Amino acid sequence: MGVTEDELKDKKALYSLNCIDWHLLPLPTPVLLAEVAAVAKGRFVGDPSFEYELTETRQQGEGDEAVKEEFTMKVTEEKRLAATVFNIEKDVSVVPRGAFIRTPHDTVQVNHSFQGLSTLEARNLGNYLHFTEPQQLKKKSILEMADLDPSIDFLDPLSEDILKGSWSLQMEGSSMCVLRSLLWLGLTFFHVPATPQHGYIYMGDGLKNLDLPFML
Amino acid sequence: MEQPEEVPHNPTEQAAICFKAFMLKNSPKSNLNLYDHLVRVLCKVMDERPENAVDVIEDLSLEVKRTGMRDKQSTLRDTPPVPAVQLLAEQQKTLFTRGSGDDVEPEEELVETPLPNLAEQSFYLEQAGVGLPREELQRIHLALKQLVDAQPLQTCRFWGKILGTQANYLVAEVDFREGEEEDEEGLQEDGADEEEKEGGAGDEDEEEATEEIDPLPVSAYKPPPAVPKEENHTGVNKFTYFVCREPGLPWVRLPPVTPAQITAARQIRRFFTGNLDAPIISYPPFPGNETNYLRALVARISAGTQVSPLGFYQFGEEEGEEEEEAARDSFEENPEFEGVPVPEMVDSMANWVHHVQHILQQGRCVWVNLAEKPEEDLEEEGDEEEGEEEPDEPEPEVGPPLLTPLSEDADIEGTPPWSCKMSSTLIPQFAIAVLRSNLWPGAYAYATGNRKFENIYIGWGMKFVGEGYTPPMPPAPQREYPSGEEITEALDPSLEEEQALQAALEERRAAEEEAEELEGEEEEEEEDDY
Fold first, then answer.
1. ipTM > 0.85 for the complex
2. For chain B: N or C, fewer Cβ within 10 A?
3. B84/A171 touch (CB, cutoff 8 Å), yes or no
4. Residue B387: pLDDT band by 50, 70, 90 thresholds?
């Protein structure tokens, strides 16, 4: 996580099976992501060297001269884990608005004067931002951009997710705000209003909930 | 303070005192006086020490006046809205007070209470790596106590927590003492019966109507007979369930589940909203609202994931003799059970058994022959349709019997249905066996070496289905009506054809007139036709 000056870029992830020996996950490239998406299915096994295999039959040539060839794609579980971590970070990493700030040097840093959202603000999904490279922000009109503070609002708010209702926002206990993702079941974010405490954790089976449109 | 009372020594001093008195005169309009105002302004200048104070003295004066005025503008204040947290806290307050009944016979209650020891369970669950925060668990414990005090319960167990999009459900599994159930159920059953009767009456009316008037096309579709609901204390309705959203809020009793609800719940995937009255909008349509869906899901999860160590339960001796006739559906605790060693429980799934009956495809635990029932109905109605073919006797569905080892559970697309591990490999002497369901993510069970075990479910209520969920297809459209002559559309005749036909008819009429002059009536009829 955030090993360089910029909190947003160059994230690295480590994994461990026993919380003592930690290994660096390979960096996910677009090729790797595509391979994993095609090959890896089902639950994780728990062995980084386990290989998922997919055998495809492709036809080459046309008509009678068609030649069937079998391609076998292999992906290790370690690569799949790297891709999954990357996807979760990309889709559902959350920070409260204002917790990070973009400096004039265009680096993203922790906002040390962040005092937390107020209790009212914490109930609004628009005050939570995706902590990843913004996708929607560039498409906004100048009129919409006028209301935004460029040093704080440089990320996409959750309220503008394409699938409305893919987040469950609840006040838990007396003063804790809990945000759960329905797209990646198992991702939970917490924020204690009026304090800078916030964080998220993913504990789940590493499978994206593709059935979400049927379930709302 | 005493100075003004003394006799002034000289006229200058007296003039000063007079002027001070003048300045101290309150204005009737704003109830201020100049002296106090100047004091405040000068104090402000002293405090803030602005540069070139003389330039801003008017602003300072105005500001001082304004701050003075603000206090007096309105003595009415908005009452702050009572925050939801406070409302909840007030409702939870009752949890932390001792009821009057507790003081009467404390010893007796301590012995008899069916209240589970949640604190102990949480101790083990914590080792298993699952569970709820201690504070929340304590509240739940108190809420369960409230439930036990309010209802005549035989057993009570914290079943788990189901997450919803707006609120979560805490589920308690209880069994009423015999004969002390509330009348609520009886009423509900009566209601259901009435509905059925009404439905029947409606059908008869329709039949009468069809005989009387012009025969409208009657739909040949007959809904398949509804599978009868299982009685309380048997099958899927063996236990009663109570849910509440937050500890301290009232517990709501879930209605008994019907087989139709279970079969429908199997075909849909939906999140809970946290509102029991929310409708379930889905395809295929679900009979009931979220209360019923929750109950159906609780039944399915229980049947799939409630497990116990092998040998903890045994079949009663009486039941054993009737074994061949019916599937055994009750069991008792084995008093001689001494626990299975933890390493063995971790190694072999055969040391865990299901202690809740499998739910059949029909939506019941005990299979019912549906083909028998319509026959009886027909006889009652008066043997009208004797000639109708009786449906073939369906094969009875048989599920795995009660107390089947987990090792016989089916795999889910290559994934084993259960994962088991020891809570600690470093101190195996005191470790417990932790079992995790892969079929129902969120379902956990633990067992210690000495008779203690528990099941808990904390999750979204979603079964793992492997590949993406595919909603069932709508039924195939009805076949077209067989096309025959009477409904085939013919081409309209053209003008020439009509004229030719008319000419031909006139010729024929002329010939007929000549031939049979006597029968004029027919001609008129023919004329009418054209």
1. no
2. N
3. yes
4. very low
